[in-house]
Design brief:
The complex is a heterodimer. Helices cover 42% and strands 18% of the residues of chain A. By secondary structure, chain A is an alpha/beta fold. In chain A, strand 3, helix 3 (62-70) and strand 4 form a beta-alpha-beta unit. The longest helix of chain A has 13 residues, at 13-25. Chain B is α+β, with helices and mostly antiparallel strands. Chain B has helices spanning 3-8, 16-39, 48-78, 91-108, 130-146, 178-181, 192-197, 205-215; strands at 87-89, 112-117, 126-128, 153-161, 164-171, 219-225, 229-237. Chain B has a 5-stranded mixed sheet. In chain B, a hairpin with a 2-residue loop joins strand 4 and strand 5. Chain B is globular and about 60 Å long. In chain B, 27% of the residues are buried. Classes of the chains: A alpha/beta, B alpha+beta.
């Protein structure tokens, strides 16, 4: 059976470990990047099936990464789940306008739902 | 660079409190996340005492997160930077959803939670910032449930009053004493009775709710009698 590949772009190493190990236990192949630039490079070299993206990142921020993904014909169909602690309406609206599939607020989001959200978007695409 | 991104590039001034709040939220998310994984027993079985203690820790991280969010909002309000991204929404649907979400808490607190919408067809969509109004609704409903008397009732009503929509949240709770009534919307204010009932709470919810409603062009008010209960209402303009 195919193992889906999830790319997590997150600079906090503890959150990265938390998400990666959680998804790995649920049967996904997980790759990760801790900066925006590294993340973008990996999208082209690794061709993930889904991307989990933090918005506040060193070098290139998440908004720029999202913009690059969604304005490139080769990558725009990859579902992007934004996970952030930014809660302002304008950030949510901007991210949705830019084409992200989902906007999740880290402190309000339950870990046991992570795999469900990933599966839902993989199934849709 | 696409057009969308060019619009985003206007720099927002960075306030120490925004940075502090954001920096604190990341480790909080980490703590909360690991706790949830442990409690789920995904990485090993726990005895009931271990689960119980971990749940207590989780509840406290949720309180910290709530306080941080409030602190950030208050700081924005005080700098006159409360932003509302308003669009036309159906308030009835928003309230229905929030009431539904609160049913579990109400049941746990042995409290009935009911919704009554008067003359639905006369209630149009209104231009509001949905996430912000949800904050106000959640604040009022959670207060009503938390300060409730046992086997009490919380009744939510929505009605149209001429050119305004009025939302009310009526409880049969402990009520607010005369001497506390004029301080209830003040920042950090918590009456002694409220403190003894519920020791942890930011005391910022009503201050923030008032700022949001007034910025939305509405009014917020309440009626209360100690020992009998309170009714908190807000109105929002229709056009």
């Amino acid at each position: 059976m195919k193992k889906y590949k999830v790319l997590i772009i997150e600079d906090d190493k503890f959150l990265l470990k938390l998400y990666s190990e959680n998804l790995y236990r649920k049967g996904f192949e997980v790759i990760s990047a801790s900066t925006g630039n590294e993340g973008l490079n990996m999208i082209f070299t690794e061709k993930p099936d889904l991307i989990i993206l933090n918005l506040i990142l060193p070098t290139k921020d998440g908004f720029e990464v999202l913009d690059s993904i969604k304005s490139n014909s080769e990558t725009k169909t990859i579902p992007v789940i934004v996970m952030t602690n930014l809660e302002q309406d304008e950030d949510v609206n901007k991210v949705k306008e830019m084409g992200a599939e989902e906007y999740l607020i880290k402190t309000k989001f339950s870990m046991h739902k992570l795999a469900d959200v990933v599966i839902r978007w993989l199934y849709k695409s | 660079m696409s057009k969308n991104l060019k619009k985003k590039k206007n720099k927002r001034p960075i306030e120490a409190i925004s940075v502090a709040s954001h920096q604190l939220k990341t480790p909080l998310s980490v703590i909360k996340g690991y706790l949830e994984v442990l409690i789920s027993e995904d990485v090993g079985e726990l005895n009931s005492k271990q689960k119980d203690y971990l749940n207590d820790i989780l509840k406290n991280t949720q309180k910290m997160e709530e306080f941080l969010t409030h602190l950030l909002e208050v700081s924005k309000i005080e700098r006159g930077e409360l932003e509302l991204n308003a669009r036309k929404v159906d308030l009835k649907e928003i309230v229905r959803q929030e009431v539904e979400d609160f049913k579990i808490l109400a049941k746990a607190k042995n409290c009935q939670l009911n919704l009554n919408i008067e003359n639905e067809d006369k209630i149009p969509k209104i231009k509001i910032a949905p996430l912000k109004i949800i904050e106000v609704i959640d604040n009022l409903i959670s207060n009503a449930i938390e300060y409730n008397q046992d086997k009490g009732e919380v009744l939510i009503t929505i009605k149209r009053k001429e050119d305004k929509l009025v939302f009310c949240c009526q409880d049969s709770g402990m009520g607010i004493s005369e001497e506390d009534q004029d301080k209830i919307f003040k920042k950090f204010y918590r009456s002694e009775k409220a403190l003894s009932r519920l020791p942890v709470g930011s005391g910022l919810g009503l201050f923030i709710s008032k700022a949001i409603i007034e910025k939305s062009g509405g009014e917020i008010w309440f009626d209360s009698e100690e020992g009998k209960g309170s009714t908190f209402c807000f109105s929002l303009p229709i056009e």
